[in-house]
Amino acid sequence: MPQGFSAAPLPGDPNFPLYLQQVSNALGAIDRNLVQRARRADNLSFFPKLDWQATAADQLTFVYNYSRFNSPGGEITFNPVATFGAEALPNNFVRDHHASVHWTHTFGPAILNDVSVSFLRDQQIATPSGLTSPTLGQIEFFSPSFFELGNPTFSQGDNKEFQWQLNDHVTYVAGRHTLNFGFDFNRTHVTDFFPGNFDGTFAFSSPASFALDRYSFFNQAAGTPTFPFTFPYYGFYVQDKFQVLKNLTLDFGLREDFQVYPQPRSNTTVGDPLVARLTGQFPNQYNRLAPRVGFAYQPVSKTVVRGGFGIFREILDGINYESSVIANGLASQQATTFVPFNSALAPNQQTPVFPNSLTNTSSFGAGSNLSIVDPSFRIPYVLESSLEIQRELISNTTITVGTMWTHGVHLLASSAYDKNLVPPTGTTTYYVCPAGVGQGTPGSPDPSPAVCGGSPTPHRILTVACSPRAA
């Protein structure tokens, strides 16, 4: 909250001075946030380049790109912003360095080699708006409409990415064949600092409860805010451009590329060996062959028909990997607490007292959700084909008519109603267990009818037996 806010006991008299002051402060905080905030986007870039013809057969190119982007209040890019007050609009700051050396060498009329080495450093920083205390957590209220004050969970972050890249490309001409082959290597290291909800979130049911400091609930996160990981990328390719006839050329190509993400830390505290094993693995995929074919045909003078078909495989973004393994159920990685408002106590006797967060997080429990990547998970790929006809009408005038068809396979589904999902088969069984049995605590017995059948307690264990989903 803005400076000057302090928790007050619930008054019996609506004219109680401290109550009136709190109402005034609350209305003032809302009113100050219902404004248009001027937003800037300043970008400074340098991109010097040096070309050097060292010998008749060697050419070198040196490139350095620098970009500095600063946008106060610009972390949210859409406009207008309907749900965030002015003080909840964080700042966005980005710095990029990219340097590369490119060397082309001609070995003779039939062989050309092209090699490059590059380094990239990218840093993306989010900071609070500065319009309120930087340690103030997120404040939400839902009536008459959803609204946020304070510093949202995404207002603090520092993501650093470092990349080393090596590429080599060889062109070899042999008769009617032009062969192209080579490899790409990329080593990426990411250090992501994201404290998220470490300053806590207060939720209010109405502006009136906000004025009285009577929050509905408070939640806060703790754990490890920094997530570092390193992963290499490898790509290999070969292509043959074959001039079958004077008026017909065929292209055949094949590419294989893959990433190698590190295996995540296993959670052995869940009491289930299968779940423990699944939390400690990530399904890297290596069978990613991507063939491509194409042609260019001149059936008659001044008319050319071109077409092709290929498979183009997607790669898994590093942030998706991080999101998939960071929620492993270990309190050292992610811990949370949920505190409802105690209506038997005055606002200034609550734990915590609004607008303060909890400083002692030792009692926080591990996240209630586990993030497990299915071992049969398939990264999406795209089937793509194209066809075009080019015709020279008159001198210096050409008309082209073309079409393209694409089809995505194994698209990531975000809803149970997505038509691409194949429903899992199996059964769901509930066992009613006595307290302390089968609750996922170390050493507790596994739930089974023999152990916990028939006990009239509210503790339930849900087991789902599913067959592997079809690819």
What do these coordinates show?
The chain has 2 domains: 297 residues, no CATH class; 49 residues, no CATH class. By secondary structure, it is mostly beta strands. Strands 1, 2, 3, 4, 5, 8, 9, 12, 13, 14, 15, 18 and 19 form a 13-stranded antiparallel beta sheet that branches. A 6-stranded mixed beta sheet has the order 7-6-10-11-16-17. 15% of the residues are buried. The C terminus is likely disordered. It contains 5 helices and 21 strands.
- Please count the beta strands (DSSP E, at least 2 residues each): 21
- The secondary-structure element order is HEEEEEEEEEEHEEEHEEHEEEEEHE
- Structural category: mainly beta
Give the N-to-C terminal Cα separation: 51 Å
Q: Which band does the percent of strand residues land in? A: over 45%
Radius of gyration: 30 Å
Count of discrete alpha- or pi-helical segments spanning 4 or more residues: 5
Q: Which residue ranges are poorly predicted, with pLDDT under 50 across at least 5 consecutive positions?
A: 437-471
Please, how many domains? 2
Main beta sheet strand tally, sense and closure: 13 strands, antiparallel
Level of helix content?
under 10%
Report the principal-axis shape: elongated
Q: Provide mean pLDDT, rounded.
A: 85
